Amino acid sequence: MTADAPVRLGMVGIGRAIWGMHCPELEGRTDKFLVVAACDMIEDRRAKMAERYNCATYERVEDLVEDPNVEIVDIATRSIDHFQHAKLALEAGKDVLVEKPMCVSYDEASMLFGIATLCGKRVFVRHNRRFEPAFQHIREIIDSGLLGEVYEIKLRRVGFQRRDDWQTLKSSGGGQLLNWGPHIIDHALRLLGAPLKSQWSDLKCTAALGDAEDHLKIILRGENGRVVDMEISGGASIGEPEYLVWGTRGALSCSGNTMKMKYLNPDVPLQDRSADPGTPGTTFGTKEELQWVEEEIPAAPKLAVNMSTIWDELYRTYREGAAFPITSEECLGVMRVVSTAKEGTAF
């Protein structure tokens, strides 16, 4: 096989993620990826894949992972099945791409990476929102120092839906902690800017019809003192900006790909002042004219990316030997927050 040959994929679980996301994202990447096999219990889904890709189809995962034409097994079955299906693939000598959540607990995730090491194979986790333009651009702005020392960040993904599918059921690995959770927790840990020092969380079921949580709040504190406050909810009829960043010299909010910023003009030095312990007059402190800059800009990071960029990174890693930008340690960090949030709860 040549070094630039397309990576041969075997897809497992032809549902909303693979059919609605993975397949469309791969359409412009036929020089990098080739779908050679597909597996699903539902015959109609297998037929659709055979028609679209002229690929082999299987009803059982056990059969797909033995297909010698498959290099990477792309797993997007129910969350509760990710560990077992990935384990089957690894033990059959295949590398694995796992849709989030990679597993349903930190212990499962640790075991899976351990199995991969024993088998001499690799597990790639599809934290594709790592490449969301707004997230990437916000990281650049924080790192630039334009907002001063960033001390608190709020992350929100909220709406209202009386959801009733398997992702509302604990028995299927449902709940928002394993649905939106891995994406937003991954963002939070990257934005924290330091090792995690402490975590507080609260989980509720508010509007969904299943027994898993549909509303969660997690607050992370880094060793640098920075706080990241996350809320994910299916029970919130009024929302907030998806990102809100507060720093000592300014702030940023973002919804979709529109960012609003207000920050002190970096070209105008602040007056040299100090607190006065004396008896104040009729005002609350001394009036000061601050030079603010206010602007609204589109999310446009220096490196043009989108959520399908993860496929380009996977190809570079698999065929060209580049380091995959989502490490096993980072994936385990996400799953540690997930498991800690569930401790002592009904979920």
Descriptive notes:
The protein is α/β, with parallel strands linked by helices and 347 residues long. It is 29% helix and 25% strand. The chain contains 9 helices and 14 strands. It has helices at 16-26, 43-53, 61-64, 82-91, 106-119, 133-144, 181-192, 309-320, 328-342, and strands at residues 7-12, 33-39, 56-58, 72-75, 95-99, 123-126, 150-158, 196-204, 215-222, 227-233, 243-247, 250-255, 258-264, 292-298. Strand 11 and strand 12 form a beta hairpin. The mean pLDDT is 96.
Question: Helices, strands, pairings?
Answer:
Layout: E1 7-12, H1 16-26, E2 33-39, H2 43-53, E3 56-58, H3 61-64, E4 72-75, H4 82-91, E5 95-99, H5 106-119, E6 123-126, H6 133-144, E7 150-158, H7 181-192, E8 196-204, E9 215-222, E10 227-233, E11 243-247, E12 250-255, E13 258-264, E14 292-298, H8 309-320, H9 328-342
Helix pairs in contact: 4-5, 5-9, 7-9
